[in-house]
């Protein structure tokens, strides 16, 4: 990869702080990393909102859709199993499921063994949409990373994984049902 001589916004901000407060120059190194992660997160969020809207979904609905699809047959999970991946409250999950049910993407089914337990299951339309949007989503994600070669992306993933784990971002895979 060639070094790009252009300055991004973060480099400009760090340079301004170094000029304004030279006493902070050695302490600004975290900004080089974390501010870029924050800014890239905004780029990704903007992309996801536009992408999901093209498919008549909100970002949270997309999360539920692909979580159910990747859970494997019968593509059904409890609402509680969907909460950790979505990082929302049970009320927010319920609202998402209600909207998705109205769109015909999911259905609530009673558990045969425990009638009190309800599972959220993809409908045929939901499974078809999940497959379609996931394929397109991966292509878009690859385009977002296109300025980097795959080796660089793989090298970047390791330290980011370490940071996430160090800050408690773990997930036990949900139990399908």
Observed structural traits:
3 strands; 7% strand; mainly alpha; single chain
Q: Share of helix among residues?
A: 55-70%
Number of helices: 7
The profile of the biggest β sheet is: 3 strands, antiparallel
Rg over alpha carbons: 21 Å
| Strand adjacency order, main sheet | 1-3-2
**What's the SSE pattern?**
HHHEHHEEHH
Low-confidence runs of at least 5 consecutive residues: none
The 3D shape can be described as: elongated
Mean pLDDT equals 90
Structural class by sheet pairing and helices? mainly alpha
How far apart are the first and last residues' alpha carbons, in Å?
46 Å
What is the β-strand count?
A: 3
Strand content: 5-15%
Short description:
The chain is mostly helical.
Q: What can you see in these coordinates?
A:
- With 177 residues, the protein is mainly α.
- Helix content is 62%, strand content 7%.
- It is built from seven helices and three strands, in the order αααβααββαα.
- The protein has helices at 9-20, 29-54, 59-70, 79-86, 90-102, 124-144, 150-166; strands at 76-78, 106-110, 118-122.
- Strands 1-3-2 form a three-stranded antiparallel β-sheet.
- A hairpin with a 7-residue loop joins strand 2 and strand 3.
- Helix 3 packs across helix 6 and helix 4 (79-86) packs across helix 5 (90-102).
- It is elongated.
- The chain starts with 8 loop residues before the first helix and ends in an 11-residue tail after the last helix.
- The mean pLDDT is 90.
Secondary structure elements and pairings:
Blueprint: H1 9-20, H2 29-54, H3 59-70, E1 76-78, H4 79-86, H5 90-102, E2 106-110, E3 118-122, H6 124-144, H7 150-166
Antiparallel strand pairs: 1-3, 2-3
Helix pairs in contact: 3-6, 4-5
């Amino acid at each position: 990869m060639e070094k790009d001589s252009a300055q991004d916004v973060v480099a400009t901000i760090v340079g301004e702080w170094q000029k304004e407060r030279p006493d902070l120059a050695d302490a600004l190194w975290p900004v080089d990393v974390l501010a870029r992660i924050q800014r890239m997160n905004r780029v990704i969020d903007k992309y996801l909102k536009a992408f999901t809207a093209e498919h008549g979904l909100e970002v949270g609905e997309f999360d539920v859709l692909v979580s159910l699809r990747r859970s494997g047959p019968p593509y059904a999970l409890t609402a509680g199993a969907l909460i950790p991946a979505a990082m929302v409250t049970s009320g927010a999950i319920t609202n998402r499921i209600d909207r998705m049910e109205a769109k015909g993407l999911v259905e609530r089914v009673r558990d045969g063994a425990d009638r009190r337990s309800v599972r959220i299951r993809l409908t045929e339309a939901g499974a078809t949409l999940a497959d379609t949007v996931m394929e397109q989503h991966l292509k878009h994600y690859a385009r977002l990373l296109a300025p980097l070669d795959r080796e660089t992306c793989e090298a970047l993933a390791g330290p980011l994984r370490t940071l996430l784990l160090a800050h408690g971002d773990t997930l036990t895979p949900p139990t399908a049902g």
